């Protein structure tokens, strides 16, 4: 089903097409690889498994390294995916490393975000889970790590790790797996208990001397209560969770920067209706902040992730370098232009994928599918209208290849 819009004018009609695939709601839903994803990949690779065109996988999920996600995608899709083809919501946060490598950074989010942050080069990172363990009375209802693993989410949490996907925000274990099971939880014995809390400085951050100055929300937090409480404390205590707002103001402490990796309100797993994403957490936190500070907003709030420009600019660089490595014929273009007939951004979420591609300009072509967040009515979204609207990712690839022939 094509939208009523006519064919687009290709910015560089003799160039090859390139592709940027969203993951959740396009290639997978929860634990299931969608059949159209396998079909689409076949159309883009040779029988020997070589890519015919440049391809990136660009998701607002994360919680694993780009290398690990590439391995997962290779297994799920049966094609060789390299780490250089993967853009996770937090991948553009690498750009902050030159400024923040030595600074104390508080990290929030499920999955293996602490390891991911370290792999990027952030050297002084503290997870909200560790902060809660160090200050047990600060988030008294936080369920772990103070409780035994496996008791915190009740019996609804699937217990079995799976090689199949569950969501882009996982390390390949069950969704919302306990940190202990995922190997990421600090042991309570080394981080104190409710009776004997250990000071935050024991965690390697002398916070009074060098307060946290940046919060990175790298994936959807696993405990919204704990993280909304602790992030509010850090934001209003000017980076020192134990300091009162008044003393922070008196000390003239600089405001803390709050950076979210993903503004998605919704995303699609196998549940019939879309689920809350990190953007919903952000709204909740900022709403509480506003209510408690007479309508104020934290000084520095930034969102990475689609539809913001950072992942699109990174994708352009990666696609160009892939095209060169593949030895494709690339027409001469003016400086600042890209030699592609189109960069087809295939996504299911109009507010993220379609808006992002439409704003990215140049050769970007938004392609909306109906296998995830967008369910109609009608073939296209009225608010964020895609250049092409089709049923699924296999049809999206067909449309792109047809229009560039
Ligand atoms: O948590 C993941 C979600 O917000 C979006 O993932 O792959 O649809 O961009 P994706
Ligand atoms: Mg999606």
From TrEMBL:
Residues 152-195 are annotated as: Disordered. NCBIfam families: HAD-SF-IIA. One of its GO terms (cellular component) is mitochondrion. SUPFAM superfamilies: HAD-like. Gene3D superfamilies: HAD superfamily/HAD-like. GO terms for biological process: glycerophospholipid biosynthetic process. This is Uncharacterized protein. InterPro entries: CDP-alcohol_PTase-I, HAD-like_sf, HAD-SF_hydro_IIA, HAD_sf. Residues 154-195 have a biased composition (Low complexity). Signal peptide: none annotated.
